[in-house]
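Tutorial handout. Part one gives the primary structure; part two gives the three-dimensional structure as tokens.
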Amino acid sequence: MMHTRAALEATENMATSNSQSQQGTTVPDREVAKHAFAAELNEATYTFKTAQNERAPVYVALPTGERANRVCVMGTVTDVEDVGTDDQEYFRVRIVDPTGTFWVYAGQYQHEALKRLKKIEPPEFLTVIGKPRTYKTDDGTINVSLVPEDVGIVDVRTRDIWVFETARRTLERIGSARETSPKVAALAREQYGHDGSYFAHVAALALQNLLDGDESSSSDGEETIEERLEEAEAKDDDVDGEEPEQETLIED
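Part two.
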């Protein structure tokens, strides 16, 4: 198990890893992993590319107004299940944070992450660096899951620090996205029908859960959060000022 400061620093290194040298060549920089709560990530159902290149990165538009190709999440593992076939393993992992549930899927192409996930015995605190992916269910609902790049078991204090840090970064996005990423912020508002400001309530609720001593989300807790967020969203007024100029982005 990784512990507190060392684990947090390791996670930050994974999340912000830049170009590396391999046999004299340079590997292009990877996208910085964004810290996001489950409540926000699960609403980030709109994907796009910024180029028509087949290998161009796929982004989700976060409701708080920034794009994300990679994310950094932490929470309590509550279930690990092999949902693959007799010939091929495919693991589904359920992770909960104070705001909701992350679903992580790993198969043969996530070999290292899969090996680690198979050893997990719930409940354990886990950090995941991964790429968000969207998929449509039979009834047309669009869900968001994570394809893991790296995973690691952490202690409760490290998870608590992640909650504080994710709350801080969520609030930063809410306050600055219209200036730092106006095109994505406008796109997110158009797609989701709001400006993302109610995720300030998500951050506040996550911090309150922490102060109350809750170590994981329960079904009842998630329902309460959803109800309170709906109330908060209904009360939020439109943001004053002109809409930033939009750029046509390429849907995935």
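Part three, for discussion. The first strand starts at residue 21 and ends at 22. The chain has a mean pLDDT of 82.
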